[in-house]
Design brief:
The complex is a heterodimer of chains A (115) and B (114).
Chain A lengths: L3 E3 L4 E4 L4 E7 L4 E9 L6 E6 L3 E5 L2 E6 L4 E6 L8 E9 L10 E2 L3 E6 L1
Parallel strand pairs in A: 2-11
Antiparallel strand pairs in A: 1-3, 3-8, 4-5, 4-9, 6-7, 7-8, 9-10, 9-11
Chain B lengths: L4 E3 L2 E4 L5 E6 L6 E7 L5 E8 L2 E5 L7 E4 L6 E5 L8 E8 L8 E2 L3 E5 L1
Parallel strand pairs in B: 2-11
Antiparallel strand pairs in B: 1-3, 3-8, 4-5, 4-9, 5-6, 7-8, 9-10, 9-11
The chains are: A mainly beta (115), B mainly beta (114).
Chain lengths: 115, 114
């Protein structure tokens, strides 16, 4: 069973602080890594994608990937109350000759940003 | 900005009834997916669809489920005889390519089976 694991939280951070979220995955064939944000009762909304080792920054968000350790993280700088949501880590495994790459999701980390 | 749309937003049905959930993927996307999320649980993959055929399906996607792309824009999920445990949020997603394989999600349909 290929798994994606996240700490369920809640991760409570004060407004303006950095929120650090972690995710581990079990399939070494994973090729693409995503962070989605999900508000209660809503659909997953893409925040970041990362495909190679290292850091990728987009505004207040930074994704970090370490394939050797099978670890991907998300940093949220200058956290705002509107960042309060569940953050989902998801991975795909590329298949030779495949036609469509399913996402395998972690259970999500709930983040609470307190004013 | 292009987006995935889904209808209806909420569907209530009686156990044993058939339901059809509808999705309009982003227009230039080629790969289509259905996922579901039971309340309080993970988002789970159901099926992927490319070039008018199923490319992969999960164990959840049994004979009660089917998908169809009846025309150039719609993508549907049919549940033939609903069960109580089919109650969940159903999300459609689409992607433009295999790499990058970024998937964009629709707003979801909440299915309630009574």
């Amino acid at each position: 069973q290929k798994e994606v694991e996240q700490n369920s939280g809640p991760l409570s951070v004060p407004e303006g602080a950095i929120a650090s979220l972690n995710c581990t995955y079990s399939d070494r064939g994973s090729q693409s890594f995503f962070w989605y944000r999900q508000y209660s009762g809503k659909s997953p909304e893409l925040i970041m994608s990362i495909y190679s080792n290292g850091d990728k920054e987009d505004g207040r968000f930074t994704a970090q990937l370490n394939k050797a350790s099978q670890y991907v993280s998300l940093l949220i700088r200058d956290s705002q109350p509107s960042d309060s949501a569940t953050y989902l880590c998801a991975v795909t495994v590329g298949k030779r000759g495949g036609a469509g790459n399913k996402l395998t999701f972690g259970g999500g980390t709930r983040v609470l940003v307190k004013p | 900005e292009p987006e995935v749309t889904q209808t209806p937003s909420h569907q209530v049905t009686q156990m044993g009834q058939e339901v059809i959930l509808r999705c309009v993927p982003i227009s230039n996307h080629l790969y289509f997916y259905w996922y579901r999320q039971i309340l309080g649980q993970k988002v789970e993959f159901l099926v992927s669809f490319y070039n008018n055929e199923i490319s992969e399906k999960s164990e959840i996607f049994d004979d009660q489920f089917s998908v169809e792309r009846p025309d150039g824009s719609n993508f549907t999920l049919k549940i033939r005889s609903t069960k109580l445990e089919d109650s969940a949020m159903y999300f459609c997603a689409s992607s433009e390519a295999l790499l990058p394989d970024t998937q964009y999600f629709g707003p979801g349909t909440r299915l309630t089976v009574l």
